[in-house]
Amino acid sequence: MPSPPALLPGLVFRPAAERFHTRLEWLDSWHSFSFASHVDPKWIGFGPLRVINDDTLSAGQGFDMHPHRDMEIITVMVEGELSHHDSMGHQAVLHAGEVQRMSAGTGIVHSEMNGGLAPCRLLQIWIEPDQAGLPPAYEQQAFPPRVGWTPLLSPDGAGDTLAIQRRVHLWRGRAGAEESLPLRVPPCERVWIQMIAGGLRLSVADGGEGMVLAQGDGLGFDWSASEGPLQSLRSGPQGSDVLLFALS
């Protein structure tokens, strides 16, 4: 699979404004990687991470019943609410702060509709499973907001995390203005950072004065050494809200 363009050795940067964009009357969607009719061989994915869509849905609108197969589909609700119905009989409403994990496995059909009175915003994430043909599965959980890193996903569903059929960990990090977010990453092959809101200043090895990520920006890097190229994270004046993936 082609690699995204490199910013510095071992780093790839995906500016928010350079993402693919789908704009419909009821949907405003920004795609970090190739999706639907938006295809670029340089941006097929990052390891097993294949999709990060930042979607805003109008009230009363959404995605009608549609199928998936052999994909781990994660929904992180940022604002508003989203109603879920699927062919396994699950009917649920996701609210801001909740996370849904759906293993499509041998096949699942579902719909996602904004049943609220205001627009909703969510990040939908697709990750390739370790193997095809797994049984479909569904779970969701609320993660109350707190300062620091909150673990959302892990391979074995340890602690309060949701389980995922891949050696992947996902955290959501929040920090106030000019606060640090200590970086603790387990052994993995790659790391991807996706900004939900606010700003984040990064210090990188051999990166001079470092760089700043803003809402919608993404950054990926290899984690093959005991310490990757990323040295530290510090939020900007508006604080920060960020996702961090450890991928293998």
User: Low-confidence stretches at least 5 residues in length (pLDDT < 50)?
Assistant: none
Structural class designation = mainly beta
**Element order: H for helix, E for strand:** EEEEEEEEEEEEEEEEEEEE
Q: What's the number of extended β-strand segments? A: 20
Please tell me what the overall shape is. Answer: globular
Give the N-terminus to C-terminus distance in angstroms: 15 Å
* Count of the domains: 1
Could you state the CATH homologous superfamily? Jelly Rolls
- Find the CATH topology: Jelly Rolls
CATH architecture: Sandwich
The number of helical elements comes to: 0
> Biggest β-sheet: count, sense, barrel?
9 strands, mixed
* Residue share in β-strands: over 45%
Question: How would you describe the overall organization of this protein?
Answer:
The chain is mostly beta strands and 248 residues long. The chain has a single domain (6-247), classed as Jelly Rolls. Helix content is 0%, strand content 55%. It is built from no helices and 20 strands. The strands form 3 sheets. Strands 1, 2, 14, 15, 16, 17, 18, 19 and 20 form a 9-stranded mixed beta sheet that branches. Strands 3-4-5-12-7-10-13 form a 7-stranded antiparallel beta sheet, with no helix packed on it. A 4-stranded antiparallel beta sheet has the order 6-11-8-9, with no helix packed on it. The two termini are 15 Å apart.
